[in-house]
Amino acid sequence: MFIVGRILSSLLVIAGSLVLVFAILYVLPGDPTDNMIDPSVATAEQIANLKQQLGVDQPFYIQFTRYISDMVRGDFGNSLLNSEPVLDKILEHFPATLALTAASALVSITIGLVLGVLSAIHRNGPIDFIARLVGLFGISMPTFWSGILLIVLFSLQLGWFPAMGSDGWKTIVLPALTLGIVGAGFIVRMVRSSMLDIIDEHFMLTLRSKGLSERAVMYKHALRNALIPAVTMIGMLIGEMLAGTVVIETVFSRQGIGRIIGDALMAKDLPVVQGVIFITAVIYVLVNLLVDLSYSVIDPRVRRSA
Amino acid sequence: MNRSRFVRRPFQTSTALLLVLTLLLSACASNKGSNNNSGQPAAQQSDAPAATEIKQGGVLTYALATSPDSLDPHRSGLAVAVRVIRTIYDSLVVQLPDNSIKPWLATSWAISDDGLSYTFKLRQDVKFQDGTPFNAEAVKYNFDRILDPATKAANAAALLAPYQSSEVIDEYTVKLNLATPSRAFLGNLSQALLGIVSPTAAKKDGDQFGLNPVGTGPFKFVKWEQNAEIQVAKNADYNWAPELVTNTGAPYLDGIIFKIVPEEATRIGSVQSGQVLAAETVPPQNIVALKGDSKVQLLEANTVGLPYTLFFNQEHAPWNDVKARQAVQLAVDVDSIVKTLYLGTYDRAWSPLTPGTFGYDPTLENGVKPDLEKAGALLDEIGWVKGADGIREKDGKKLTLHYVDGTPNREKRNDIAVIIQQQLKALGIAVEVEITKDVRTVVYTNGDYDLYGNSQVNSDPNALYPFYHTTDPKAQKSLTRLSNPEIDKLLEQGRVETDDTKRADIYKQIQHYIIDQAVILPIYVFPYTVAADKSVQGLVFDSLGYPLFNGVSISS
Amino acid sequence: MREAATASTIWYKRNRAAAIRFKRLSANNLFLIAAAAVILFIAACAVVPSFIAPYSPTEMLTDSIMQPPSAAHVFGTDYFGRDIFSVVVYGSRDSLFIGFASVLVGGLAGGAIGALSGYAGGWIDAVLMRFNDILMTIPGILLALAIAGALGKSLFNIVLAVAVASIPGYARIMRSQIMSIKGRTFILASQAAGASPLHIFWKHVLPNSLSPLLVMATIGIGTSILTGSGLSFLGLGVLKEVPDWGTLLSQGRGYLTVAWWICTFPGLAITMFVLAVNMIGDRLRDRLDPKRSAR
């Protein structure tokens, strides 16, 4: 019963986000022909013809219902700009975004854990100070700026990694670093405080009194217990990272979902925008469903309250 | 058909002539430095150091600033797409830097006395990259395709006007009929957006043709990874290059990879770090820096057509008053703007036309000099006097100027607005700058601007017509809202005048009027710039500033 | 086994000693002092820029464009020939406006939605939370991009765009806090005593639920400035005579390899300010969480 309810409400959320995006596009000025035809060259008649052919002269609600009815039948439609099927477009771009998000999450966890643990172990010492400062820097810089700085340093000056592209592991290093540093900042904070919580708890004292070495206590118990919130945090950060790709993919000239939706949004390319939002909404809903389900498995109280 | 005006251009003769020319030019080119061609439409430059030295093979990586929209020439609306389109497709004719029209896929043509029909003789040895033969049917199919609304043709439809229909005379002769005579028509036919697509492929792929383009050009399409790269490969059968390039045969390169790199610093830096061999649209600050780089050369071609121009909206008072406009003309220090923002890398514009365009009048150069005092006197004269806050007033109304510019900040145009705002503050005009994404609505539909800037790459001075001719009450208004019977008459004559000397004179009169009456403020001439590794040789540009890769080779 | 224990004891002791030496200026205190100083200075820039900036931010010295930092121009000059230090000082106004105003709008709206949802429960909660989920499915920067695009370029529209994008976060945290407070004994006690639900909400639930929202809002000031600068990068920045830091950074980034100072100083201004705000936020979080006050 609980699961059926969740699935129903998930469907509602997906439908709702499509309607919301539609509403936003409705008020967005201009139309897709803006960049297709130069108003200083073309006659008004030519522009009107083009609009008619693309169907963008129709009232928006007609465009929307047509789109939805096609989608229900499994047809995501074609891009208004170049007629490319939206599904092909998404399938072409999705792997690169997925790879970038995964690599960034890896960077976040690695840096976040190392700094967080160091910081907790050396509580209030100079290492704590430095580790936290580094973590804070990560979340305080505009990503497009840190990205460009990394390009200038590691690509243009040192020539270690390519500055652009989305094929091969080498191209993913710099963008993943840029995006991963942001997530690392949040994880440092999280790991540090949950480790400190555990260190202060009684059972640690008990373990110590049992004669376990200090180091063993730290790494075996405190760290293991701190890992859980850090991994949960990553779940929450995935959404943030997907959003971050809008900027990062442009800075690093990568293919990806973030880049096409940013462009499509500004060009009012309705089928593309709706297609991408549909996919991200499904991902979001699925991730949350999984998180909630796993909670209810771990903690029976959640099941009862839901 | 009128035999006397049939321009015969046997293809063999021109090839032989070209060969001689090539040898002569390459002899000259090897003496002087090969990268100093600034300000020149570079086609005069040899694109091959010498026939024996040319290295075959290799792949050129070329970074583009934005992603092309479609590789269907008839549907594309972006200049960046034309850089790729030009490699895949050929046109019927070619326009040389001296504005003369020469054969390409057409060997010769005749224009009827009334200027309403053009009969083209076509080359008989041309095949599309998919094997389809090129013939009169193919030409007819192409132009009818642009006219067909289902094609969703964009700028190509505008360029093709006043085309009406085609008749296939025989397999290699086609007659194009126009609704009205147009001197701009041949020049427009030379543009890549009117390039000839393969009828077989276009019919087969329909809407998706722009994703699987097929033409007759020197390179054939391989693949397109959107937002990342486009690959084209050598068309080994190619043997019909126009006079604009010296290599009439297949290209020396094995292929070109166009990389899409929007971030300026990355794009240019990648050439310096060797990640790509060439990159387009070099920002002025980098042009200056590159001039001292021993590994990188800078190639530029000034574009023809209309320079970046600020248009006054004469429907809005007080800008309908020539004195108010002249005051602004005298107060805006264009030299200072061009020097500050473009660091001397862009030329200042003086006329509504750019220097390479047919009929350009160089006597306008240095005609307008900034004179704040005179500007102030002009405004005083018409009753706009300085108020307490330094802003001029008349009848309790402040003197404001609504300056509209589009986004993004292309070629630092938004920065021009910032400087003009400061410069006109000194004259007592409050400039309200509006940067909008929706130029179509704000400017073209609502006319909500006093000053708006635009430029246009165009092969013919007839480009002036839609900007300065009185507009048909039913049509969209011109940017200037100018309505002067004299100018109307001249623009109409220029459109059809067949005598080049007379035609040039007509356009000179128009240019003088526009500047004397301060209808516009011409700002700068945009050069298309390419930063390339020194190993890249033979890159030239057509008269519109688009790169041609036929003669490019990569030396080791 | 013994050896390992000894080593670890030594390690632990050494560490302790370092911590004690550092104690007088503990990390937390150091952060706090530095952060307060940065924020105070930037606030002063926003309030009385004319006392701090040596030049007018609009004055274009066309003879000295792109000059590197010097005694006359400590941050150098930009491509218009403006003194970058002065432009950055004046630019703090709009940057802080974006930061504070969008937190105010987003925090109030999100807080209200979350409070209503959590306290009312039932179908109101269900409806509001589905709406919140819908907002959350669309990445924040895209939402901001769409709103800024729809409303046009103005400072206020940027604020609105950033604020709307931040609503779901505030709503979620407020709702969960309200729900946990609602079940506490002292609330149940006053309910038993017959107090009206509205009274209980204003007097007990709300005051006890605000602290996480406050922490989030503090950090949100920094996040908003970052989101705003992201919008500038994507071409939706506001062009004014004196632009905000995000716009300055975005416009100057093309000069990084030829005149590094043009974008570096606005970038540093953003980073320092956001860093300071984050430090204060961290400290606030520790303080408001009774369990962690010892740190």
From TrEMBL, chain A:
<keyword id="KW-0812">Transmembrane</keyword>
<keyword id="KW-1003">Cell membrane</keyword>
<dbReference type="Pfam" id="PF19300">
    <property type="entry name" value="BPD_transp_1_N"/>
</dbReference>
<feature type="domain" description="ABC transmembrane type-1">
    <location>
        <begin position="94"/>
        <end position="295"/>
    </location>
</feature>
<feature type="transmembrane region" description="Helical">
    <location>
        <begin position="227"/>
        <end position="252"/>
    </location>
</feature>
<feature type="transmembrane region" description="Helical">
    <location>
        <begin position="172"/>
        <end position="191"/>
    </location>
</feature>
<dbReference type="InterPro" id="IPR035906">
    <property type="entry name" value="MetI-like_sf"/>
</dbReference>
<keyword id="KW-0472">Membrane</keyword>
<feature type="transmembrane region" description="Helical">
    <location>
        <begin position="98"/>
        <end position="121"/>
    </location>
</feature>
<dbReference type="InterPro" id="IPR000515">
    <property type="entry name" value="MetI-like"/>
</dbReference>
<keyword id="KW-1133">Transmembrane helix</keyword>
<protein>
    <submittedName>
        <fullName>Peptide/nickel transport system permease protein</fullName>
    </submittedName>
</protein>
<dbReference type="InterPro" id="IPR045621">
    <property type="entry name" value="BPD_transp_1_N"/>
</dbReference>
<feature type="transmembrane region" description="Helical">
    <location>
        <begin position="272"/>
        <end position="295"/>
    </location>
</feature>
<comment type="similarity">
    <text>Belongs to the binding-protein-dependent transport system permease family.</text>
</comment>
TrEMBL record, chain B:
<feature type="signal peptide">
    <location>
        <begin position="1"/>
        <end position="29"/>
    </location>
</feature>
<comment type="similarity">
    <text>Belongs to the bacterial solute-binding protein 5 family.</text>
</comment>
<dbReference type="Pfam" id="PF00496">
    <property type="entry name" value="SBP_bac_5"/>
</dbReference>
<keyword id="KW-0813">Transport</keyword>
<dbReference type="GO" id="GO:0015833">
    <property type="term" value="P:peptide transport"/>
</dbReference>
<dbReference type="GO" id="GO:0042597">
    <property type="term" value="C:periplasmic space"/>
</dbReference>
<dbReference type="InterPro" id="IPR039424">
    <property type="entry name" value="SBP_5"/>
</dbReference>
<feature type="domain" description="Solute-binding protein family 5">
    <location>
        <begin position="101"/>
        <end position="472"/>
    </location>
</feature>
<dbReference type="GO" id="GO:0043190">
    <property type="term" value="C:ATP-binding cassette (ABC) transporter complex"/>
</dbReference>
<dbReference type="InterPro" id="IPR030678">
    <property type="entry name" value="Peptide/Ni-bd"/>
</dbReference>
<keyword id="KW-0732">Signal</keyword>
<dbReference type="InterPro" id="IPR000914">
    <property type="entry name" value="SBP_5_dom"/>
</dbReference>
<protein>
    <submittedName>
        <fullName>Peptide/nickel transport system substrate-binding protein</fullName>
    </submittedName>
</protein>
<dbReference type="GO" id="GO:1904680">
    <property type="term" value="F:peptide transmembrane transporter activity"/>
</dbReference>
Automatic annotation (TrEMBL), chain C:
<dbReference type="InterPro" id="IPR035906">
    <property type="entry name" value="MetI-like_sf"/>
</dbReference>
<protein>
    <submittedName>
        <fullName>Peptide/nickel transport system permease protein</fullName>
    </submittedName>
</protein>
<feature type="transmembrane region" description="Helical">
    <location>
        <begin position="155"/>
        <end position="174"/>
    </location>
</feature>
<feature type="transmembrane region" description="Helical">
    <location>
        <begin position="213"/>
        <end position="238"/>
    </location>
</feature>
<dbReference type="InterPro" id="IPR050366">
    <property type="entry name" value="BP-dependent_transpt_permease"/>
</dbReference>
<dbReference type="Pfam" id="PF00528">
    <property type="entry name" value="BPD_transp_1"/>
</dbReference>
<feature type="transmembrane region" description="Helical">
    <location>
        <begin position="258"/>
        <end position="281"/>
    </location>
</feature>
<keyword id="KW-1003">Cell membrane</keyword>
<comment type="similarity">
    <text>Belongs to the binding-protein-dependent transport system permease family.</text>
</comment>
<feature type="transmembrane region" description="Helical">
    <location>
        <begin position="131"/>
        <end position="149"/>
    </location>
</feature>
<feature type="domain" description="ABC transmembrane type-1">
    <location>
        <begin position="92"/>
        <end position="281"/>
    </location>
</feature>
<dbReference type="InterPro" id="IPR000515">
    <property type="entry name" value="MetI-like"/>
</dbReference>
<keyword id="KW-1133">Transmembrane helix</keyword>
<keyword id="KW-0812">Transmembrane</keyword>
<dbReference type="GO" id="GO:0055085">
    <property type="term" value="P:transmembrane transport"/>
</dbReference>
